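Appendix B, record 7
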Amino acid sequence: MPGLGLAVLTAGAALISAAVPALAQEKKPGLSLAAIPGTPNTLSARAYTMGQLFKDAGYATAIFGKWHLGIDPQSLPGAHGFDEFYGIPPDTSWNDAATVSLIMQSHSIDAPEKYLIEKGPWMMRQMGVGPLERVKPFTPEVRAEVDNELTDLSIAFIKQQQAAGKPFFLYLPFSMGHVPNYPSKQCAGKSRIGQYGDKIMEGDYHVGQVHSAPVHHAAVSHDLRPEQRSARGLQPVLHRHDLWLDAGAGSQSHRRI
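Structure tokens (predicted):
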């Protein structure tokens, strides 16, 4: 099967909630506002995503990271062709890791920290069209290390599908580039230009890990080829015959850390 490389993505709007489904659908999604539960500003049940397209073609499908297209049942990844989802709540963004700490600092809610952590946000998982399951609190500490976790899950998914002899589609929206830029312990201070530089460097490293996985682990065909596109952050999109990388400018070389 020949590979297909798409080098350009035109954002559907000037915010991620609209731009992400433009990638998922390869067309303008109709969203112009951030996803808000209980309003029309969530992904429609009628939206036909790339996840559904690949699933209909017999591919295993997964998304690890940020969805941010709504937490209503018709808007969840499982309702749009993804066999597996792990990441932040589908109605939140990366900055929500700081929610509890900001509330505690500002005393804006009179409640103990334990109660606020229990209320959320939490990292979540969904298998197929099953229910969302809470995994662990989405704290600044978890936010700092989350890209390590997403990378490990992605490589494990690639290896699993290779062992099963099944083609796959993997959507991997990293946290890198989105505030707050908490670097992992492994990368803190490595760039020497602050947290943003550390996180960009870390994202570059993770893309290199995922891109190398097919070769080092014999996970997929060797005809994979990277293509860079400008976006806020790094969002590798993999299927069995191609590796597409959404990356901020300058992330051409994969660093060893």
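Remarks on this record: Residues 215-235, 239-257 have pLDDT under 50 and may be disordered. The first strand starts at residue 60 and ends at 65.
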